[in-house]
Amino acid sequence: MVNFSWLPAAFAQASGRLTDNLSELAGSATVALAVTGLSRSGKTVFTTSLIHNLLSSVHNLNRMPLLSAVGERRLVAAQLEGAKAHRLPRFPYLDNIEKMAGNTPDWPERTADLSEIGVQLRFAPAGTVGKFLTEITGSPASLTVRIIDYPGEWLLDLPLLTQSYSQWSHATLRPMRKGVRAEVSGDFMSFIAQHKPEEAASDEVAKQAHDLYCAYLLTARDRHGLSFLQPGRFLCRGSLGDVPYLWFAPLEIREGVGGFAPHTLGALMAERFDVYKREAVARFYIEHFRHYARQVVLVDVLRALLAGRDAFDDTRLALEAILESFRYGHGGIISKLLFGSHIDKVLFAATKADHVPDIQRDHLAALLRNMAAIPALEVKSGNAQFDVTALASVVSTAEESQEIEGHRVQVVVGRPVGSRKQSKFFVGNVPIRPPRAGAWGTPFLNVPVFEPPVIDPSPVEGIPHINLDLALEFLLGDRLR
């Protein structure tokens, strides 16, 4: 610490105030990093590994070398932020690590609601101004990374804000008459065929329709790998619970009908739809989303590809809806909701890169880049900075070679959860662009879930990963300079 006691009292007091201000400037920075993604994309595991490896990188410099503050040996300390009176529940990092490192290793539970946790990083600045501030204050710079974990399904609801109930019903029921959706929506479609919007309002009928519609959504997601499923809170309610305004579903509405007579089923559904938009969708963006500075969106590209054309196209639609949340053009929905606040960096990550050999991982990233139409977004002004990568939050496989139909190919090997022996997994060639209509094979949803590797629960060695440090460098590297 610089000693100003030799100066006259007035100068000493002024210098002391300057030192305090500089210390605050250098040492109180906070950045909100939001983590989201579609169902089973690995959000909880990503956040757990991110925290564990940040804490471990102080001791194991080889764990996160592509994060410049670590690779340049400028990271001085990393620790969990103490418990504070935050509005959100605390992310269960310690419980997750214990589960992954237990005698019977397993993966933590999926994200079901908003949660947060803070990691305090102390580092030696790389820039001239930062070095000067450090010399003046006598302490390293610090950055608190506030990590928020939330379900990506909630971002799918943004388009609802510009739709009436009638418009949403038409848009939702149209794809349910063909393909995979038609196969799994029979019970719901039969029910609403018997209940017209003009009939008398009934809580019981509305609740039955809602329950059948939710059952359809769950089947479409879990058995067929579909992703573009609205409303998002029907699949992941968070803290809302089973409030009555959720008891709605689309109805068969004649073209051109915009309003409904009072006390009809259509009027009841439309009223609840409007309350949902106000209380669940708009409130999430205004109260939470507007405070996020950096965002990572996780996508299980491999599962979408293997699940077949319907699932793949559905994932593209879901990505398109999610991307609306990061467009800030004049007059856009987000601009009106957030009053100028916006995310300035977004990373799209193709997860579970350890399920394909090293030579295929760049293909995963390229396929995601094309699925999300990132090249077109990058040339639009007023948007966040975008980047794409392939990563594995935890490496749970090893590479081997195997002869298949007379050809030597690279495969991955791991032990499926609950199995006593290892299994080999070969996905073939991952395309860099969406396959053509005639190139789709039989849908395959049985992607193995390999158990975690041996993990030390204490944050010293860290967890093996692929490109987690590269992802963090894009998201936070500028704040650690």
Structure, explained:
- With 481 residues, the protein is α/β, with parallel strands linked by helices.
- The chain has two domains: 30-150 and 292-481, no CATH class; 155-287, no CATH class.
- Helix content is 37%, strand content 14%.
- The strands form two sheets. A seven-stranded mixed sheet has the order 2-3-4-1-5-6-7, sandwiched between helices. A three-stranded antiparallel sheet has the order 8-9-10, with no helix packed on it.
- A hairpin with a 2-residue loop joins strand 8 (398-404) and strand 9.
- Helix 1 (9-27) crosses helix 5 (128-137), helix 2 crosses helix 4 and helix 8 (186-193) runs antiparallel to helix 9 (203-224).
- The longest helix has 23 residues, at 265-287.
- Residues 1-26 have low confidence and may be disordered.
